[in-house]
């Protein structure tokens, strides 16, 4: 029985010959599900301008959300009108010292931002800001208002009495040391004189605290 054998070209079919040998066949690009195509070097096309802006906004939003999760205590304090009133009153009083000192001495002294004494009293502004905020939020019949009021009166009495007299004593001691130990290294060391406050400075600080508390309580309540 004669075996029929197929020719080799039929057993192993090859691709059809290229009619133009000088031109290589183009490579087909693999499509993405969203309709975009890759370039022959498999490099994705850059995002359009709107896409880049949207990605930047999404990154900013994600960062802000992460920061909010990390610091929930700061958010709680920022929404507390009593805390905001006290801190804002203290910061405003300290800032006012710099400008008032410039008008008196005609020189800028940024150290007044972190020093005690001077016009107005920042300690009094802080205490009265807390007290006024509690009075506006909870009422004067609340026991918390009585606690804040007592605390504020003690601070104001200390500023006018003990701290003020301590500053006066420091001024006298500086003069005594300067006269008795003239030329001695100890005469170069000066005690701090600006410690307490005059009654007018304490009253000014109290007015600043009450003013800031009224603004903060109304502003946060409106929000």
UniProtKB/TrEMBL annotation:
It holds the Pfam family DUF212. InterPro entries: DUF212. The keyword Secreted does not apply. Keywords: Membrane, Transmembrane, Transmembrane helix. Residues 1-13 have a biased composition (Low complexity). The chain crosses the membrane at residues 202-221. It comes from the Eukaryota. Residues 1-46 are annotated as: Disordered. Coiled coil: none annotated. This is Acid phosphatase/vanadium-dependent haloperoxidase-related protein. It comes from Iris pallida.
């Amino acid at each position: 029985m004669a075996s029929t054998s197929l020719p080799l070209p039929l057993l192993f079919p090859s691709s059809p010959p290229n009619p133009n040998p000088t031109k290589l066949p183009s490579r087909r690009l693999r499509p993405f599900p969203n309709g975009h195509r890759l370039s022959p070097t498999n490099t994705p096309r850059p995002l359009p301008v709107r896409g880049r802006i949207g990605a930047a906004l999404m990154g900013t939003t994600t960062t802000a959300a992460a920061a909010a999760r990390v610091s929930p205590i700061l958010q709680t304090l920022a929404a507390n009108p009593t805390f905001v009133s006290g801190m804002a009153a203290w910061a405003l009083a300290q800032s006012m010292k710099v400008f008032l000192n410039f008008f008196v001495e005609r020189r800028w002294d940024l150290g007044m931002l972190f020093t005690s004494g001077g016009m107005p009293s920042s300690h009094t502004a802080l205490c009265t800001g807390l007290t006024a905020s509690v009075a506006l939020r909870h009422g004067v019949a609340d026991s918390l208002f009585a606690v804040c009021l007592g605390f504020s009166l003690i601070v104001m009495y200390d500023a006018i009495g003990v701290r003020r007299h301590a500053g006066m004593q420091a001024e006298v001691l500086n003069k005594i040391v300067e006269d008795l130990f003239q030329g001695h290294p100890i005469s170069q060391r000066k005690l701090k004189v600006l410690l307490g406050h005059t009654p007018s400075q304490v009253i000014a600080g109290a007015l600043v605290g009450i003013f800031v508390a009224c603004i903060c309580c109304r502003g946060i309540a409106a929000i």
